[in-house]
Amino acid sequence: MGSTKPSKFGNLLLSTIGPLDCALTGTAILNSPTFNKGSAFTPSERRDFNLTGLLPANEQSLEHQVERAYQQYLSRSDDLAKNTFLTSLKDQNEVLYFKLLLTHLKEMFSVVYTPTEGDAIQNYSRLFRRPEGCFLDINHPENVEQDLALWGGPDDVDYICVTDGEEILGIGDQGVGGILISGAKLTLASLCAGVHPNRTLPVVIDCGTDNQDLHNDELYLGLHQNRVRGKQYDEFIQTFVEAARKLFPRAYIHFEDFGLRNARRLLELYRPKIACFNDDVQGTGCVTLAAIMAALHASGQKLSNSRMIIFGAGSAGVGIADQVRDAIAAEMNISHEKASQQIWLIDKPGLLTSKIDVSDAQKMYVKDASEWSDNASLLSVVKQVNPNILIGTSTVPGAFTEEIVKAMHENCPRPIIFPLSNPTRLHEAKPADLLRWTNGQALVATGSPFDPVTGPWGKDGKDITIEIAECNNSVVFPGIGLGCILSRAKLLTDRMLVAAVQGVASLSPTLKDPTATLLPDVEEVRTVSVQVAKSVIQAAVEEGVATEKDIPSDEHDLEEWIREQMWNPEYRPLRLVKMEDATRAAKGELGKAMPGL
In which residues is a divalent metal cation bound (predicted)? Predict the structure, then answer.
C-alpha cells in the first residue's frame, strides 16, 4: 500500500513516503486516474471515501489487478489494439497502468512506444477518444499563455515535452497526431525514471501539416493547411518558450521530433537560456556514445584513436557525431574542429565534402573535395578511411553489405557496427549477418530489439551466444530529465551530458562478460536512471547551474535523495481532506487542465 519506510528526505515536495491527501469521494475518486484504486481500496478507505456500495466486496491487491489487466491485454487482437487498451487503462488507473508496464516491460515496451506508438500516431484522428495534453494553434499566438496556464501554477509542472509533429518516429509529418509522441516520451520518463506523471505536460504545436494524406482526411483533427515556416514559426516558438518559462519557471523542456531544419537550430538557440533537451539530437548521441565507450573497452580500443563513419547525416546522425566529437576533444584536450577530423558523414549525395551544399550542423564534418571522388560511396569511404566504428542512421535497409563489412574487418579485428535505423525493417544490417561476416568479432548495437545470436565463434569452433544491445534512448533521456528536475538546473550543459553518458557506460554488462550486451537491459532502466540522474546532478552542482537547495554531497545520501523523489506505481494510503482546504494535488487536478479559467 505504498512505502512507509523512514527517510531523512520524507519532507521533500516530491517525496513518495506516507499518505496522500485526497478531497474526492464516491464516484469522483473512481473517475480520478490519480487516486483510483478500484478493487484495491481498503475497508477503511471505502468507508471514509463513501465507496462501500460502489465496489465489489472483495478487496484485492495491486498484483491481482495486474494479472487481470494482463489477461485483458493478451485478449486484444493486435499490437495497435493493445496500445489502445493501455491508453484506456491509463485514463482509469494510473498506478495500475504503470505497474502493468513495469511488470511486463520487455514485452510491452514496443507496444507502448516504437514501433506501435507510430501506428497509433498515424491513426490519431481515427482512434481519438479524448484529448490529452495542450494543443497550441500557430494561428493564435495570443492564446498561448492562457492555454498553458490551464495546467496549473509555478510549482505544478516539472517536465514539458513539446513537438511540432514534423518528423515522428521515422514516419514523417503527422501534424497534430504528434501529441501522442509527447505523451509517450513522458510516459517513459515516469516509467523509467520515476518522474511524477501528474507533474508532466505534453504539448503539440499545430503548425499545419505537409502530409497530403492528412489534408485529404476529413476526420483529421489538426489544421488543414500547409506548415507555417519562417518568421511566424520562430516567433510562435519564442512565444511558447517565454510563456512556459513564465508560468512554470522550474520546468524542464524536452523538444521532440521537430524537423531536421528546426531541431538543432532551436536547440542551439535556447540551450544557453533554459534547461532544455532534444532527444533526437542529444539523446541518440548520448546512448550511442555510451555503447561505443563500452565496445571500445571490451575490445581494448581507444576513443582517441577512433575513426568513425556515420551513414545518414540527419539530426540523429549529426547528434551522434557531435557527442563523439565532444568526447574525443575532451579526452585528447583538443578543439572540436580537430576532433571532427576523425568523423566522416555520408548522406544521400555521398560523403559530405566541400562540393556539397550542407546544413550548418553538418559543416564541421565536411571533407576537402579534392581528396575524394564525386559522390563517394560508403564502400569507397570504408576502404580509404579504415574505420573502427560504423554507425547507421540512414533508414536504408541492407546498406551495410557483406562486402562493406568485410572491407572494414580487414583492417579492424573488432569492428564496432551499429545499424540504428528504426523500425526493424529499415535497419542497415541484421546482427546475425554482421556477426557471421566477421566470424563473431563485430561489436553490435541496434535501434530496435533483436534476439541473441548463436554461432561457432568460441574456442575450437564452440557455439557461443552473443547478446545484442538495443541503443534505445530510454536508457538515458529519462535519467537526464530526472537529474535536471531534482537539481532544478538552470541549464543542461555539455558536461552534464558527458556525465550522463559515463553513468550509462559504467553499468555496461560487457564490463563483466564479453558476450553480454553493450548496454544495460531495459528491465534495469530504473537502476540506470538513478545512476544517470546522480551523475547529472553532480555535474550540475560542479557547473554551478543547480538551484535546488541542500543537495547531498555524500554519494550514498544523494542516491537515497534521488530514490525518495522517484514516483513508484504503488498504492499509497489516502487521507481525506476537506474540499475547501484542498490543494490542486488533493483535488486530483495535477496533470489536467483546469476548466473555467
Answer: 256-257, 280
Count structural domains, the chain: 3
Q: 308: which strand partners?
A: 343, 389
Q: Which of 90, 185, 367, 534 is catalytic?
A: 185
Whether 113 is a known active-site residue: answer yes
256 labelled ligand-binding: yes
CATH number at residue 352: 3.40.50.720
Active site residue 97: no
Residue for grid cell 499566438: 141
For residue 241, the domain's CATH number is 3.40.50.10380
Q: From residue 175, how far is each of 114, 210, 215, 220, 403 by CA, in Å?
A: 18, 8, 10, 9, 40
Q: By residue range, what is the domain housing residue 252?
A: 123-258
213 annotated binding-site participant: no
The one catalytic residue among 37, 73, 90, 113? 113
Residue with cell 465507496: 51
Annotated ligand binding at 280? The verdict is yes
229-264: pLDDT as tens digits? 999 999 999 999 999 999 999 999 999 999 878 998
Residue 357 annotated as part of some ligand binding site: no
For 278, the 3-state DSSP assignment is: strand
What is the predicted pLDDT for the residue at 595? Answer: 62
**Are 477 and 534 in the same domain?**
yes
Round to whole Å and give the CA distance between 265 and 267.
Answer: 5
